[in-house]
Amino acid sequence: xxxxxxxxxxxxxxxxxxxxxxxxxxxxxxxxxxxxxxxxxxxxxxxxxxxxxxxxxxxxxxxxxxxxxxxxxxxxxxxxxxxxxxxxxxxxxxxxxxxxxxxxxxxxxxxxxxxxxxxxxxxxxxxxxxxxxxxxxxxxxxxxxxxxxxxxxxxxxxxxxxxxxxxxxxxxxxxxxxxxxxxxxxxxxxxxxxxx
Length: 196
Prior knowledge:
Blueprint: H1 3-8, H2 11-25, H3 32-39, H4 43-49, H5 53-73, H6 75-78, H7 82-99, H8 101-109, H9 115-140, H10 150-167, H11 177-192
Helix pairs in contact: 2-3, 2-5, 2-8, 5-7, 5-8, 5-9, 7-8, 7-9, 7-10, 7-11, 9-10
InterPro entries: Homeodomain-like_sf, HTH-type_TetR-like_transc_reg, HTH_TetR, KstR2_TetR_C, Tet_transcr_reg_TetR-rel_C_sf
Pfam family, one: TetR_N
Organism: Streptomyces antnestii
């Protein structure tokens, strides 16, 4: 490894490599040795950028969580009928998942074995509850079917969206985030919206 490459290594490129290794090996199965080999730099060079692998995990899942929570602050997620806001949030969740695919994939795989993982799982639950509250509000407004239990519908919506992390490959079958978001939104709301 040349000094020039070490000098150009950034915290962002290190994070990208770490996320890839965490997703391949699992967080618990990844050592600093694995990270240094994948990055092509020494372990001491990694410690120049971060305190350890848990800091890398926290940065990675924070990036995913920031993307998801950012949706809830967008105007279309805050204004209008609950069902319209829910549809917007659903579409944007798909887009964020795809644009931040490795980071969201890692977030979906944390199991609560470390403080960072427990924190991430709690934040994810908080996000899920806010989306579930939108679905409840849409049901209370009479805009979604009353014969589907809200808790079950919420789990099915998240299940469909989160499954994208398992099969979507950028540049794969020619589908971009908009096409996937359109398909998911049509499937979910075609089944959820109350027929007139």
